[in-house]
Amino acid sequence: MRLPSGLRAVLGCVALAIASVAHAQDKKACDLFTRAEVESVLGVALEEPMSQAGGASCHFTNFAQNKPRPPQRVDVSVNVQYAAAPNRAAVEQYLKFIDEKTYDNPAEVSGLGDAAVSHGGPNAPTLAVFRGGTMVLTINGTATLEQLKALALKALGEPGTTGFAYGTPRAPLPRPALSSAAAKPGSVEQLKRELTAKADAGSVRAQMALAKLYEFGSVGADGNVKPDYVGAAYWYQQASDGGDYEATYSLAVLYRDGSGVAASPATALELLRKAALAGYVPAMVPLSYAYAATRTGVSDTRARYWAQEAARRDDPAGWALVGYLYNKGYLGGSRPYWYKMAMDAYLKGAEGGDCVAMMNIGGLYFNGDGVPQDRAQAEKWFEKSEACKGKDLDWLREKAAKYRQKAATGHLPKVQDPDQPSKSAGPKVAADGQKVFGALMAMIVLAAALDVAQGSTDSSAIGSGGTAGPGSPGLGGSRGSSPAPVRHCRQVSVGSFSTAHGRNAISPSGATTTVCD
Question: How many domains does the chain fold into?
Fold first, then answer.
């Protein structure tokens, strides 16, 4: 099995920041191990290896022309590239290619070279090992990942580390300065001092508590949170570097929204992907939005994957987004199937408290989409959505009230023929803003920070700083003299991933706008 041509091409680009120059001491791929060594790892007898690409590639197989076909064919390809100068960005370039050109989700592999990643299915994985900034060893084929790792160890000489640090260092974020004035005992400033001492000593919990304190811990006279995003970004970065994936997610939101840092959709996507791949569920729906806005050949598939993965893990925001994707026909099937699956997903999201899912259930009943048009059910679900709390949901309550009143008076639109083609252009899912809970969030953050400062070891003391929901439906438009059907839409962060605003868009608090299909 040979490497795909695109992957072979990127290996050349990854390994070579400049033109590749083989050194005299660099081994060709077939010289990295003997056939007997490969046979001992794979457990099968092999034919003579075939050298390809001027020695950069070597192919091992148990199949040969004019010989009986083996019960199970085995093919393993080895590719090695050398560069004349170290390339710190080699791993990033490789991962970027995987992300934009394949459907694989790469995973870090420890104990091999200076960095290593695997990707692909369990029956035909690919292992890429990076060493010294100048060498990239890639092994793939019909073997297990453990077998590929064993081959890599033989090729590198256990374990082949050089201490070279891969990765393009980011410019350091500015460290927030503590007030020079004497802090009053029990004040937020005193709490910052106590936590800073622990954070500087390497406590990731203290770093996370500080980040939340800077973002949510101060409330103005008007009762609104007065965030210090610059300070929050610095401490989220420290905690993220220490392995806290909630911090990685929170930092991604700041980069997405340009809060305390220069807006960078690419950095936000990278951080969201890192958190999501580590299993941090709140990052999955925002990552879905981010992929849908990148417009690569595989981004739409990745957007759907992460929405469905969030739903699979019972994230209410994930269920609401999956419901939206079904409702618009982006997950396959015919229109009756769309609406059935959309309703099922919305119900699960609503059960978890997602207000957008509640609104969209009301919309299905209001429009008669996949269910009998039912004014009582529409009114019920709009009322549930209208009852959602939070200052940032004023727009949602306003629209829910409007359509609840229409449902109550029986002012419903004509039901669309399910056999007619949909006029919707389909969803252009985009980024959602992080919810802020005002004074309540500040109290939670202060209590958690105080707990850390006083030395509690309960890792559950610091709660999540809020998660991004799947968006919010903007309602509008007209259908002749009938009332407008409820549009299933989503909320877009202004100035973030999308600038495409709907005809009837609204902008609650100036931070987001609602895009309607």
Answer: 1
